[in-house]
Amino acid sequence: MKTHAQVVVIGGGIVGCSVLYHLTTLGWRDVVLCERKELTAGSTWHSAGAFHALNSDAAMSRLQAYGVGLYPKLQTLSGQDIGLHYTGGLAVAATKERWDLLRADVARHKTLGLDTRLVGPAEIRELCPIMDITDVFGAMYDPMEGHLDPSGATLAYAKAARQNGAEVYRHTRVVDLKPTGKGSWLVITEQGNIEAEHIVNAGGLWAREVGHMVGVELPLIPMEHHYLITEDLPELKNATRELPVVVDLDGEMYMRQERMGVLLGVYETPATPWAVRGTPWEYGDSELLPPDLERLTGALEKGFTRFPTLNAAGIRRIVNGPFTFTPDGNPLVGPVPGVPNYWAACGVMAGLCQGGGVGLVLATWMTTGEPDGDAYALDVARFGPYATKAYVLDKASEFYSRRFAIAYPNEYWPAGRPAKTSALYDRLRLRNAVHGVSYGLEYPLYFAPAGVPAAETPSLRRSNAFGPVGVECRAARGQAGVLDASSFSKYEFAGPGAEAALDRLFAAKLPALRRVKLTPMLAKSGRLMGDLTTIRVAPDRFLVFGSGYLQAWHMRWFTEHLPKRGVTVRNLSDDWGGIAIFGPKAREALAHLTTEDVSQAGFPFMAARMMDVGLCSALVARMSVTGELGFEIHAPQVYLRGIYDRLMLVAQDLGVIDVGMYALLSLRIEKGFGIWTREFSRDYTPMESGLARFIAYEKPSFIGRAAALKDRDTPPARQLVLLDVDALDADASFYEPIWRGEERVGFITSSAYGHTCGRSLAMGYVSAHSAQAGTPLEVTIVGDRRHCRVLAEPPVDPKGARMRA
Ligand SMILES: Cc1cc2nc3c(=O)[nH]c(=O)nc-3n(C[C@H](O)[C@H](O)[C@H](O)COP(=O)(O)OP(=O)(O)OC[C@H]3O[C@@H](n4cnc5c(N)ncnc54)[C@H](O)[C@@H]3O)c2cc1C
To answer: Which among 14, 15, 39, 43 is the best mutation to test ligand 1's pocket, defined by most ligand atoms within 8 Å of the CB?
Structure first.
């Protein structure tokens, strides 16, 4: 056994072996893997082995498509038979709503490069003669689905990695990890110690325990899961082709052929969490959990109805095995915040679908310093301290039991709520606010009319929120709107070295004293890393604002890139809240609460300063993403209610009303302003996204400068545009393809109905040749093509006069 290695991967399941393989393909050869028992001895060996690229999350779909497409190459490279069957797969819709969703998904898949298509009941029956199609609307067919031998695939990764120089130590449990004090780790194993520069936690069922070795609580939990395998079915004896993998989305089950029988797996409600207090080390390499058929009765009945032949079939085997889930079902990948050189590759719920992609993303990140594009959907830093063990238990159980539930773009699932509330929460609830949740924090989406239940109907089309949001938008542009803006993140940078440190961290010029500036951050690759707003409150003190859900992600980046001395960074997001007021009456309303001069001359656009607001000393900044005359009032949460109450006392006379985040998003799109995750992310560069105008290319040094200069000097192949869409009862959402004739020229990043201009608007990236104003294009919305055109300028106040008023 080696005593030194560049990387020690802990865990020889499908994920750890894929990470090992991908590290070697990217040139890191001094890598080893330690496995407690035999390879696959966690959840991998008892997996059902089905794979597909489909996922309700677009980023995950892209990643799964990579892994699924890699298997033939892996088989060839390693010489290991992996029992690969590309049978094709059907995702079946038995409700009209589900059918709409599949139509929307098929369109979205075009953007992702997936070759799926819709099939009708007759073709379904032809592909899968044992299925009852009486209530079936149709299905989505994916030729790249299938199944394989999970052990074969894991061994294939390990063999291919070994061929590239990696070493695999079986029966070598890692019992502890100690920092050496030199930035490396001492890996203490049952067979001896290894000093490693990097650790990868691919511990699967034991990932929590491998996290405890370095003092972190990773947000994942195992759940029990059953499938059964039938005896041979007479229908399959003389069949000329294998059955496709079938996912009955409304029946919450999946089925594939297993020799001459079938394997039927079910996601029952409620979920059964397993080993809540920790996975026992002695959980074996061949034992399984006792089946609990009683719990499954309802779920199995649905299976037997969909595949009636199973009623008469004998059961050969029942498997009940645990595998891990995270609160949102996506894996945990990347550098674990606060633990240098310790990487996560765990929480992988569908290792046969996702293992390849997770391996590639992590290996790219480790070897180049950043993932190739936006990996936020699987980044371990998307969760923060709110994701306690109790929260994870609630959310992951909910995810399991709603595994195939339709993920509506306007739906916020109920488990784990409310975890965090702003000081205004109760006040706003009394005013009939409908709340959404972000990073554990409740924030208002919109206000339902008095007497109407405060609940939004989940829908792929415009919901019951449409009317009330329209009222809020018109009031905001007519008089003013007040928003609980506590969900923004807030960071304080302070110290004699703060200016120099931020000047390197941000690609923009820093603001002058008591001024606000938009300060994008770039990664070394020149791609966007943040769309922050910075206020210099003192010569050596800055407050920086961003999207609330990015807190752990931002803080990891800050701490990785700030100098060790001269500057400190504090995350104030939970301690400070915010109230935004925007609209023509905003100034008048604020003036009632302060003795300060907030006139245009006394408090111009993009000014910021501490002032008394109501009874509280608050930081007030003159800015608004709505494009209106607007102010953001930031103060410790304990003062927020006092400020709000005084504001609302004057509001009534001025016609100022409460508004929610939906109104903000509609108003900002009327101005063509982008937001993070949608228009801005690690996928895009400043030139593509239009953020180039905020980049101070002339600064001698900032992170990503060399790549940013290259980006500036190369005409972008695609550009962010604002589109006017001839929508009917649904606006676009995310990732729908944009067409020019039959050529796919781009995709949607976000959309909203512009209530004050009376048009459905969308933003998206299109090829440069289609970005000219007036270009007639089409976009697929819930499966139907709609005409749209590129707008030359935003439909509301294109010169920005209102926000400067
Ligand atoms: C019944 C069932 C059916 C499933 N069906 C499918 C399916 O059809 N398709 C699909 O994609 N997924 C399926 N899954 C999920 C899939 O099995 C998991 O996503 C996958 O196995 C996760 O792989 P992993 O490598 O992350 O974890 P694991 O397989 O748990 O591997 C972790 C490994 O780490 C080792 N280890 C842990 N701690 C240490 C330590 N300290 N030192 C050394 N070694 C350590 C363990 O021994 C283990 O071998 C199914 C799961 C179950 C239970």
So the answer is: 43
How remote is the CA of residue 259 from the centroid of ligand 1, in Å? 23
- For residue 285, the CA-to-ligand 1 centroid distance in Å is 11
Cα 777 versus chain centre, distance: 28
Mean per-residue pLDDT for 209-234? 97
Q: Whose CA is nearest to atom 20 of ligand 1?
A: 351
SS3 320: strand
Evaluate the omega torsion of the peptide bond into residue 798 and state whether it is cis, within 30 degrees of 0.
no
pLDDT of residue 54: 84
Phi, psi of 539, deg, nearest 5 = -55, -35
Give CA–CA dist 423/403, Å, rounded. Answer: 34
Whether 202 lines ligand 1, by a CB cut-off of 6 Å, is: yes
If you measure from the C-alpha of residue 772 to the centroid of ligand 1, how many angstroms do you get, rounded to a whole number? 50
Q: What percent of the chain has pLDDT over 90?
A: 95
Look at residue 509 and tell me whether its pLDDT is greater than 90.
Answer: yes
Distances in whole angstroms, Cα of residue 668 to Cα of each of 334, 676, 750, 760, 803: 32, 13, 11, 13, 12
CA torsion 335-532-687-498 (nearest 10°) is -80
Q: For the residues of 189-253, what is the DSSP string, one character each?
A: ETTEEEEEEEEEE--GGGHHHHHHTTT---S-EEEEEEEEEEPP-HHHHT-SSPPPEEEETTTTE
Ligand 1 contact, 82 CB (< 6 A): no
Tokens matching residue 729: 């009862």
The pTM of the whole model exceeds 0.70: yes
- The protein residue with its alpha carbon nearest to ligand 1, atom 32, reads 204
42 with 204: CB under 8 angstroms? yes
pLDDT at position 285 over 80: no
Whether 12 is in the pocket of ligand 1, judged by its Cβ within 6 Å, is: yes
Residue 281 CA, closest ligand 1 atom number = 38
Task: Using most ligand atoms within 8 A of CB, pick from 171, 229, 352 the residue to mutate for ligand 1.
Answer: 352
407-448, pLDDT tens digit by residue? Answer: 899 999 999 999 999 999 999 999 999 999 999 999 999 999
Give CA–CA dist 426/65, Å, rounded.
Answer: 45
**39: CA distance to ligand 1 center in Å?**
10
Residue with the smallest CA separation from ligand 1 atom 26 is 204
Indicate the top mutation candidate among 323, 330, 353 to test ligand 1's pocket, ranked by most ligand atoms within 8 A of CB: 323
User: What does the DSSP 8-state code read for residue 506?
Assistant: B
Residue type present at position 208: R
Work out which ligand 1 atom sits closest to the CA atom of 285. 47
Q: Is the pLDDT of residue 286 over 70?
A: no
Distance CA 314, CA 310 (A): 8
Q: Is the CB of 32 under 6 A from ligand 1?
A: no
pLDDT at 293 over 90: no
Residue 611 has pLDDT above 70, yes or no: yes
Per-residue pLDDT tens over the stretch 734-790: 999 999 999 999 999 999 999 999 999 999 999 999 999 999 999 999 999 999 999
Summarised one tens digit per residue, pLDDT across range 147-161 is: 999 999 999 999 999
What is the mean pLDDT of the segment spanning 203-225?
A: 98
* CB distance 695 to 507 below 8 Å: yes
> β-pairing, 784-790 with 718-725?
antiparallel
Q: What is the rounded (10 degree) CA torsion for 731, 737, 740, 744? A: 180
What the block records as the tokens of 217 is: 């609580």
H-type alpha helices, 287-404: 293-306, 351-368, 389-401
